[in-house]
Structure formats: structure tokens, C-alpha cells
Amino acid sequence: MQPELLCALIPLFPLIGFLINGIGFRHVPKGVAGAIATIAVLASFLTSAFLFGAFIGNEHQTGSTAPLVATLFDWISVGDLHINFSFQIDQLSLIMLLVVTGVGSLIHLYSIGYMSHDSGFGKFMAFLNLFVFFMLLLVMGSNYVIMFIGWEGVGLCSYLLIGFWNTNTSYNNAARKAFVMNRIGDLGFLLGIFMLINTFGTVEYVDIFKQATSLEIGDSTVFLITILLFVGAMGKSAQIPLYTWLPDAMAGPTPVSALIHAATMVTAGIYMVVRSNVLYTLSPLTLEIIGGIAIATALLAASIGLLQNDIKKVLAYSTVSQLGYMFLGLSATAYTAGMFHVITHAFFKALLFLGAGSVIHAMSDEQDIRKMGGLRKALPVTFITFLIGTIAISGLPPFAGFFSKDEILAHVFEHNKVLWALGVLGSGLTSFYMFRLLFLTFFGKFRGTEEQRHHLHESPATMTAPLVFLAILSAVGGILNLPGSGWLGDFMAPLFEGSRQVNPEAFAESTVEHSTEYILMAVSAGVALLALILAYVMYISRGAVPAPETDERSLPEKVIYNKYYIDELYDNIIVEPIRGLGDALYSFGEGLVDGLVNGVAWLVRQSSSQLRLLQNGSIGFYVFAMVLSIAAIFALRFFIRF
């Protein structure tokens, strides 16, 4: 089969699913709608897997690691600028294709059980398919313009999915907040694309990166381009200061949270930086800025997660923190380690969100962990899989999160010892709040109502099967890039040839001795283990339960519990002044425009009321007026002539 056809089929399958369910969502039965949507994404996964196998086979046969560019059609031609609608298949796009379609198909399957009672089921599945379609465009495009189409598309779909239950005003506000904050970042991304066109005369990855290798490190134009592109990544991947939309996005149904916050939309910024690795390697100052923002984001979000009581909000702040870790790895030019954490994070974060959805489903839509407890007996599959996900994200061996997080911290240790220490601190905070969540939800006594206790039951197979698959991947995913014999590192190596060429030192062999590496691994795992023990002592041995909303809190606890009042700060210094300015302009415009319109109407009305008196029916007056007019015309002609 031709590669061009395979490339076209991958995004085409979910697009067809969207069209069928989107057009006929009022008429297609729920069972059929769920099957169509899930099979569409599964077909994309199988096609991606086939393409992956063909790429690996071709690599072994020919020894070529060059990317395959499949041009579907000529798209835009303006002067010397030519933009094709084409896809690029290489190591990075293949990895993202497998993650997006693989995890996405499991989330679609889970949605069949979770959303089965919702009246808008068909529309929901259509939106999920459309989201996957745009995400596939984002990762498959061979140039920045197609990436931008997918970039904007997933932003639109996130708006539709977050505000899916649109009868609730707060959910609509959350969707609008996500849309607006992403648009702020997207403006930076768009300006970066314009600068790429102005600098390189093209938007094609291959052409840009080839030209970039001839530039010097620290080039001011490249610095500006990379900063602008990173502004886009700050919006999509929720970094300071554009992160506050992501926790609010929990307003959407739980499968949406898993899809947006695990494998797809929030990793778009990471993908963009790794794709543009040559440009970022040429700009060490940009990488330093990214590192500072990343560690600040990781620690800020982790500290907020310590005191959150909404099961999905804890996971949301965890996502923000983990994205900070990914960018921290990229700032140390550990591009492979960053992508490795993207993959493992997709496994265990999707698992945790879907596990949280299973808990919410059993608890009759209750999300407050203070009203849970003792659920491990009623929900055994959910408990075991959630436990595996918690161990994985906490960075405890031998599960997937340990290997990916350890690899990032090892690279950061070589790059900057202070960032490494702060990264280890963040790892400990992650372990504490995740085990706090686990213990309060599944251990101790049940703290809900009798009606909820009576309703407790394990989720149906359509929901637990994805949990089991993701739990297995979260447990064994670390084998993708084991220390010293990493398959992922070898597979992705050709992506960074340009970066090695412009800055060989950044990709030199590690100077850290093996004994030091083992110590670093032990420190990271030890801190996570100590945090686990502390959480166990507080919430199991002592049986502590977070205080109700009405209780008084100490000042530090109050600040953290209220998320450092950052949302309130944004409201006071940005939202309210802009709203006030808008109201003032509206009032001014209303007074000016209404006054002008009403004034013209008054003038016409008054003039017409006087002029109509001339029409009095007197023939003598009409003859007089006609003679007077003729005399005036002759006089006017006479003066004009002389």
C-alpha cells in the first residue's frame, strides 16, 4: 500500500466517525454511535502500527533514517512561498501517532460505559473523534502551518468538550477561559510562524532545519522565534502564567479530562519543542528561560495539589506539574527524556483520570475525596489499577514513571544542580499528594451517604478493560528506555542530527560516573518513598481527614488552599480592568452613536414637518415657486459664467 494513502487514512478514519455521528447524532443509536467512534480511532491505531512496522523495516533494509514526506496536494502559493498539504512520517510523528490513537481508542471505549446514560452521547463521541482528527493533523503535518491547523483545532474541540454540559454556567465559563487563554498563547505561536517565513522563506520542517544548521549559536532572530513558539507552548501545555485554564477544564466529562490532559492536547507544546529541537539548541538562552518557567510551574502546581480535595483537581494540578518536568528535561537538551516522559505520562495519567471517573461513577457523581474512603473493597479493579498509576507517577521503581522521571533528573543534574534539587523536591511533593489521594479515596472508613454506599459498585467492562490495559502499560512502560540500553533513545537519535551538528557539546557522552547515577536514582526514589511514608502516617495511621470548607485555616494553608489567589489576581489586574474599559467604551459608544442617530432623526422629522407646509394645494403658490426657481437657476448660471 502506498505510504501517501496510509498517511491520509490515519486522520481520515476519525473524521469519518465525526461526520457520521455529528450529522446523525439524533438518529444513530447509542450502541452504534459508540462502536463507530471507537472503531474509527482503533482503525487509525492499527494503520499507524502498520506504518510504524513498515518504517522500521525500511530502516533495517536500507539503513536510511530520512523522514518520509507524503504530499497530498499543493495548497498555498504566494510569490516564492509554497505551502503543501503534506504529512511527515519520522520517528517523532510515529511515536505520537501510536500514543494518541492507542490511548485515544481506550478512552473512546471507556466513554461508551461512562457516558451511556447521557442524552448527548452521539454528539459527545463525534466531538471526541474530531479532537483526535485535529491532534493527528498536528503531529503528522510536515510544516508549521498544518501544525497550526491542528493546534487551533484541538483548542476548538477542547472548548466544545469542556463545556459539553452547557446548561451549567460555570462549565461554560471554564470552556471560555480555556479558549481565551489558549488564544493568548496561539498569538505568540502565529507570530513565530510569521518570523520563520520571514527568516527562512518556508514553513517546511526539513527546509527550515537544514538552513538553521548554518546559523550561529545565540542568534538573536532564532532567540525571538523560539520564544514566540514557546509562548504558544505555554498556553497549550499550561505553563506559568497561562496554566490556570487547565484545572478549570475539569468541568468537562472525565473522558475529556483523560484525553486532553494525558496523551494529546497538553503534550502539543512538548511535541512542538522536540520537533523544533535544532532551533532551540541554537538558542541556549531560550532553554534557560524554559527551565526556569518549568521548575516554577512544577513546584507551584505540586504545592497546590497538596491541599486539593476534588479528585479531578488533584490530577489536574498533577498534570501541570508533570508538564513542568517535561519542559525541565527539554531545557537541558534531554529531548528524548522529555518525550519518554510524555509517553509514560500518557499511560499513567490516562489511567488515573479514568480511574477517578470510575470512582465518580460509583459515587453518584461525587468528586470530593473527603466524602469517600474505604472504596477498595467495593471497587477492586479500580483500586488496583489506580494504585499502579499512583506508584508510577510517584517515580517509585520499577514502574514506568520512575525511569522517565529519573532520566530527566539525571540530565538536569549535569546541567544545573539547583534545578535538580528543586526537581527532586517536586518529585517528593508528587508522591505525597498522590498517595494522599489514594489513601483518602480507597482506605479508612466510608464517609459518604447511605444512599451512595448502597449505590457503590464496580464499573462495567467497557470502563474497567481500558483501566487494565493502561495499568499494564504504566507498569512495564519503562522498558522502552532502560538506562544503558534505551531502545527509545536509539530510535529517536536521527531526529537530533541537526542539533548535534550545531552544538556537539549538548549531546556529548555523560560525564557522570555510574556510581553517581545510582546515587541519584536512590535519592529520587528515596524522597518519593519518604513522602509515601509521611502520607501513610498522616492519612492511614492517624486517620486524618481534610477540614471542611468552613473551617479556619492558618495563613500558609489558606494561601495554598486558595491556589495562591492567582485566579483572583488575574481577575483584578486583567479581567476586571478590561471589562471596565469595555463597559466604558460601550457606554460612550452607545451615547455617541445613539445621540448621533437620534439627532439625525430629530432633524429630519423637524425639517419634514416644516417643509410639508409648502404643499398647501394652492396653484398660484406653485406657479410662483416655479418662476422663482427658474430665476434662481438663471442667476446661478450667470454668476458661474462670470
UniProtKB/TrEMBL annotation:
<dbReference type="InterPro" id="IPR001750">
    <property type="entry name" value="ND/Mrp_TM"/>
</dbReference>
<feature type="transmembrane region" description="Helical">
    <location>
        <begin position="381"/>
        <end position="400"/>
    </location>
</feature>
<keyword id="KW-0812">Transmembrane</keyword>
<feature type="transmembrane region" description="Helical">
    <location>
        <begin position="420"/>
        <end position="443"/>
    </location>
</feature>
<feature type="transmembrane region" description="Helical">
    <location>
        <begin position="32"/>
        <end position="56"/>
    </location>
</feature>
<feature type="transmembrane region" description="Helical">
    <location>
        <begin position="93"/>
        <end position="112"/>
    </location>
</feature>
<dbReference type="InterPro" id="IPR018393">
    <property type="entry name" value="NADHpl_OxRdtase_5_subgr"/>
</dbReference>
<feature type="transmembrane region" description="Helical">
    <location>
        <begin position="256"/>
        <end position="274"/>
    </location>
</feature>
<keyword id="KW-0472">Membrane</keyword>
<feature type="transmembrane region" description="Helical">
    <location>
        <begin position="148"/>
        <end position="166"/>
    </location>
</feature>
<dbReference type="InterPro" id="IPR003945">
    <property type="entry name" value="NU5C-like"/>
</dbReference>
<feature type="transmembrane region" description="Helical">
    <location>
        <begin position="124"/>
        <end position="142"/>
    </location>
</feature>
<feature type="transmembrane region" description="Helical">
    <location>
        <begin position="187"/>
        <end position="205"/>
    </location>
</feature>
<feature type="transmembrane region" description="Helical">
    <location>
        <begin position="518"/>
        <end position="539"/>
    </location>
</feature>
<dbReference type="Pfam" id="PF00662">
    <property type="entry name" value="Proton_antipo_N"/>
</dbReference>
<dbReference type="InterPro" id="IPR001516">
    <property type="entry name" value="Proton_antipo_N"/>
</dbReference>
<feature type="transmembrane region" description="Helical">
    <location>
        <begin position="464"/>
        <end position="482"/>
    </location>
</feature>
<keyword id="KW-1133">Transmembrane helix</keyword>
<feature type="domain" description="NADH-Ubiquinone oxidoreductase (complex I) chain 5 N-terminal">
    <location>
        <begin position="75"/>
        <end position="125"/>
    </location>
</feature>
<feature type="transmembrane region" description="Helical">
    <location>
        <begin position="217"/>
        <end position="235"/>
    </location>
</feature>
<feature type="domain" description="NADH:quinone oxidoreductase/Mrp antiporter transmembrane">
    <location>
        <begin position="143"/>
        <end position="430"/>
    </location>
</feature>
<feature type="transmembrane region" description="Helical">
    <location>
        <begin position="314"/>
        <end position="336"/>
    </location>
</feature>
<feature type="transmembrane region" description="Helical">
    <location>
        <begin position="342"/>
        <end position="360"/>
    </location>
</feature>
<dbReference type="Pfam" id="PF00361">
    <property type="entry name" value="Proton_antipo_M"/>
</dbReference>
<feature type="transmembrane region" description="Helical">
    <location>
        <begin position="286"/>
        <end position="307"/>
    </location>
</feature>
<feature type="transmembrane region" description="Helical">
    <location>
        <begin position="619"/>
        <end position="640"/>
    </location>
</feature>
<protein>
    <submittedName>
        <fullName>NADH-quinone oxidoreductase subunit L</fullName>
    </submittedName>
</protein>
